[in-house]
């Protein structure tokens, strides 16, 4: 990584002996790290407590990488010089705690891979909007002629791309789980889209700990780096008022005018950085809604810092198609519009979705509740929602929250049933919105699986 002091990286110091890399988790990030580790001369062993998907097993076998599944052989794992753990494994797991107590470095894929690239990195985190901002940022930079890869929580793993292709720039979508495993990783440009309560079960139900995790994105930045952030976000502004970052602060806002950064005036985005002003009407953005205006601001600021032409930025904002499962228009059936927002796995993401609805809405909601407080949604539900279809095994909190507000609430146990019930409630001109505000693991493999099954059910109507 550029401008990195390698002396601070004990597990990458040169050695005549082969280093032993153990990888915990045989998913996208684990297998990518295994490929990169082997390429860089490590002895590699991958261990997964569950079963490994066939497509990943094939890659491991092709690359002659030793692995095990459905178990962890601790004697072998504790012989590691460095351990890369999947972001899905919490730090509090006994195996991880034992590794740390033995002084063995436990890092994330992002940390490991970043040591083997000189690329300029744009790192994007936040409770919501990070996928859209990552894809939009990649779209702009690609249109600007940059040799850019996109990775992190999205697409092929960062480690695999560094091993196979190694781009000049990367746009990385970074979850708090990935940031928890960094030691020296430092993006040239960091973006924090927003911070609202999410994944609190992973952070001892402490919002402060979750906020601190997000701000790890800037902990190694230098005065030559940039932190782009939402100046309307209370949690972000509170942290910045009490903590220091070396990076240059670049704010954006839709509520106030700023002398530096990006703001809104007369329904026009205006950015002012490096004495270089950019203007664009929000009516021209393909993605509508206040949150997407903010995503556009953050992406524009980062693109300008990377010297992309203003005309290219404007054209890219006009023709960007958006992320699958994020306010994705599926199709109209008998005058009823069906929208897939399966990626809305928390209340704040669903708030954005409901805010964008201009027509009477049948709202499909529910799944694995992560400690949700639905009270913030109440004004929008009163104003816009005509019926609720519950899609989850445990719907008590949803029913208690909205039973006195919405006349029709129906419980369902699958995407097909939910779509059929919603279609019966809806009338011509209405919208059926899947925006669950919950995780998907009670009925589905993932939010992608939930979104795909919803779309198939709509097509089957």
UniProtKB/TrEMBL annotation:
<comment type="similarity">
    <text>Belongs to the MurCDEF family.</text>
</comment>
<dbReference type="InterPro" id="IPR004101">
    <property type="entry name" value="Mur_ligase_C"/>
</dbReference>
<comment type="pathway">
    <text>Cell wall biogenesis; peptidoglycan biosynthesis.</text>
</comment>
<dbReference type="GO" id="GO:0051301">
    <property type="term" value="P:cell division"/>
</dbReference>
<protein>
    <recommendedName>
        <fullName>UDP-N-acetylmuramoylalanine--D-glutamate ligase</fullName>
        <ecNumber>6.3.2.9</ecNumber>
    </recommendedName>
</protein>
<keyword id="KW-0963">Cytoplasm</keyword>
<keyword id="KW-0132">Cell division</keyword>
<dbReference type="GO" id="GO:0005737">
    <property type="term" value="C:cytoplasm"/>
</dbReference>
<dbReference type="GO" id="GO:0008360">
    <property type="term" value="P:regulation of cell shape"/>
</dbReference>
<dbReference type="InterPro" id="IPR013221">
    <property type="entry name" value="Mur_ligase_cen"/>
</dbReference>
<feature type="domain" description="Mur ligase C-terminal">
    <location>
        <begin position="325"/>
        <end position="438"/>
    </location>
</feature>
<comment type="function">
    <text>Cell wall formation. Catalyzes the addition of glutamate to the nucleotide precursor UDP-N-acetylmuramoyl-L-alanine (UMA).</text>
</comment>
<keyword id="KW-0133">Cell shape</keyword>
<keyword id="KW-0131">Cell cycle</keyword>
<feature type="domain" description="Mur ligase central">
    <location>
        <begin position="124"/>
        <end position="303"/>
    </location>
</feature>
<dbReference type="InterPro" id="IPR036615">
    <property type="entry name" value="Mur_ligase_C_dom_sf"/>
</dbReference>
<keyword id="KW-0573">Peptidoglycan synthesis</keyword>
<dbReference type="InterPro" id="IPR005762">
    <property type="entry name" value="MurD"/>
</dbReference>
<dbReference type="Pfam" id="PF02875">
    <property type="entry name" value="Mur_ligase_C"/>
</dbReference>
<dbReference type="Pfam" id="PF21377">
    <property type="entry name" value="MurD_N"/>
</dbReference>
<dbReference type="GO" id="GO:0009252">
    <property type="term" value="P:peptidoglycan biosynthetic process"/>
</dbReference>
<dbReference type="GO" id="GO:0005524">
    <property type="term" value="F:ATP binding"/>
</dbReference>
<dbReference type="InterPro" id="IPR036565">
    <property type="entry name" value="Mur-like_cat_sf"/>
</dbReference>
<dbReference type="GO" id="GO:0071555">
    <property type="term" value="P:cell wall organization"/>
</dbReference>
<keyword id="KW-0436">Ligase</keyword>
<keyword id="KW-0067">ATP-binding</keyword>
<dbReference type="GO" id="GO:0008764">
    <property type="term" value="F:UDP-N-acetylmuramoylalanine-D-glutamate ligase activity"/>
</dbReference>
<keyword id="KW-0961">Cell wall biogenesis/degradation</keyword>
<feature type="binding site">
    <location>
        <begin position="126"/>
        <end position="132"/>
    </location>
    <ligand>
        <name>ATP</name>
    </ligand>
</feature>
<keyword id="KW-0547">Nucleotide-binding</keyword>
<dbReference type="Pfam" id="PF08245">
    <property type="entry name" value="Mur_ligase_M"/>
</dbReference>
């Amino acid at each position: 990584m550029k401008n990195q002091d390698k002396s601070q990286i004990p597990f990458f110091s040169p050695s005549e002996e082969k280093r032993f890399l153990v990888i915990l988790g045989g998913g996208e990030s684990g297998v990518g790290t295994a490929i990169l580790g082997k390429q860089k001369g490590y002895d590699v062993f991958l261990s997964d407590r569950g079963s490994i998907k066939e497509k990943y097993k094939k890659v491991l076998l092709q690359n002659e990488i030793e692995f095990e599944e459905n178990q962890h052989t601790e004697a072998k794992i504790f012989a590691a010089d460095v351990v890369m753990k999947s972001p899905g494994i919490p730090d509090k797991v006994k195996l991880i705690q034992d590794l740390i107590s033995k002084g063995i470095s436990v890092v994330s894929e992002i940390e490991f891979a970043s040591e083997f690239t000189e690329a300029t990195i744009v790192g994007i985190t936040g409770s919501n909007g990070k996928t859209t901002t990552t894809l939009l940022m990649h779209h702009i930079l690609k249109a600007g002629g940059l040799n850019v890869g996109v990775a992190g929580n999205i697409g092929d793993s960062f480690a695999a791309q560094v091993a196979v292709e190694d781009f000049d720039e990367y746009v990385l979508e970074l979850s708090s789980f990935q940031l928890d495993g960094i030691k020296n990783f430092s993006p040239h440009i960091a973006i924090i889209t927003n911070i609202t309560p999410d994944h609190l079960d992973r952070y001892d139900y402490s919002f402060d700990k979750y906020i601190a995790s997000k701000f790890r994105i800037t902990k190694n930045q230098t005065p030559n780096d940039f932190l782009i952030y939402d100046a309307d976000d209370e949690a972000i502004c509170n942290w910045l008022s009490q903590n220091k970052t070396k990076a240059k602060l670049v704010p954006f806002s839709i509520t106030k005018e700023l002398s530096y950064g990006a703001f809104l005036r007369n329904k026009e985005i205006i950015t002012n950085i490096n004495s270089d002003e950019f203007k664009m009407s929000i009516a021209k953005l393909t993605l509508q809604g206040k949150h997407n205006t903010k995503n556009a601001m953050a992406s524009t600021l980062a693109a300008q810092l990377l010297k992309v032409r203003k005309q290219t930025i404007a054209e890219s904002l006009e023709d960007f198609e958006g992320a699958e499962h994020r306010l994705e228009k599926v199709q109209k059936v008998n005058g009823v519009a069906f929208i897939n927002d399966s990626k809305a796995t928390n209340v704040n993401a669903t708030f954005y979705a409901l805010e964008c609805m201009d027509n009477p809405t049948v709202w499909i909601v529910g799944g694995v509740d992560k400690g949700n407080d639905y009270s913030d949604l109440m004004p929008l539900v009163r104003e816009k929602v005509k019926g609720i279809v519950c899609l989850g095994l445990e719907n008590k909190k949803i029913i208690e929250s909205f039973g006195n507000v919405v006349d029709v609430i129906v419980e369902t146990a699958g995407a097909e049933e939910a779509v059929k019930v919603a279609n019966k409630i809806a009338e011509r001109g209405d919208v059926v919105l899947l925006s669950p505000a919950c995780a998907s693991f009670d009925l589905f493999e993932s939010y992608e699986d939930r979104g795909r099954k919803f779309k198939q059910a709509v097509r089957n109507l």
